[in-house]
Amino acid sequence: MELNKEELKQFLDAKVLEFNTPDFIEPDPISVPHRYSLKQDIEIAGFLAASIAWGNRKMITKNGHRMMDLLGNSPYDFVMSHSDYQLEKLNGFVHRTFNSDDFKHFIKALNHIYTNKGGLEHIFIQNQSETSLQPSIHALHKIFFEIPHLTRTRKHVADPYKGSVSKRINMCLRWFVRNDTKGVDFGIWKNISPSKLSCPLDVHSGNVARKLGLLTRNQNDGKALLELDANLRLLDPNDPVKYDFALFGLGIFEGF
After folding, report:
1. Alpha-carbon gap, residue 229 to 171, rounded angstroms
2. pLDDT, tens digit, 9 for 90 and up, residues 214-229
3. Beta bridge partners of 94
4. N or C of the chain: less Cβ packing under 10 Å?
5. How far apart are CA 34 and CA 242, in angstroms?
6. Integer Cα distance of 70 and 174 in angstroms
């Protein structure tokens, strides 16, 4: 698809308006944190739902809601005051390669983060660079595994310093940081600029980005993410990740 920069911006801006509506919420994993109004509930529900966001969208969303049911529909309270006995209630949960052992570590790690590190938002504020949140994602990975854990669980928290696109974490960062009054993203983190967000790059968004000339690299890796971020920031330096709605919608809904 050959478009000049202005035509491409107009095309994608129109697609953002088309897909960034409340209708987007129910079938998407973002519906899981939308169950809540307390900031910490939104953070924990969003982080957990995003952490299992690979594979079939319908199944991701279903299992994200199941996670909340297992946490007594009070994720922050469960994280902060759970007993070993209550953790056993998570036995049997599985989403693809994420199992109940991983789920239990996530609960313990989140407890560590909210008890000793000032919460998820504080980690991202403290470790952000002038232009990026990728250093914060790296810091989160380190903190997440400061406490005893199974080696198998490490693969479920991305580290961009090892070349990961960190798709799932970048997705929940979009949810927490962006606030465009459309009712989809929450905008509960006020001290991080949306200009620092990175696009949740996956197979679908990557394929659409390549067809539109926003991405030339064939692999979906850290270098591809840098290229895509740079090109989206040329289109809107203040809110580049709004285009996630366009890339996602074109790929999933329109088979672009």
Report:
1. 14
2. 999 999 999 999 999 9
3. 99
4. N
5. 19
6. 25
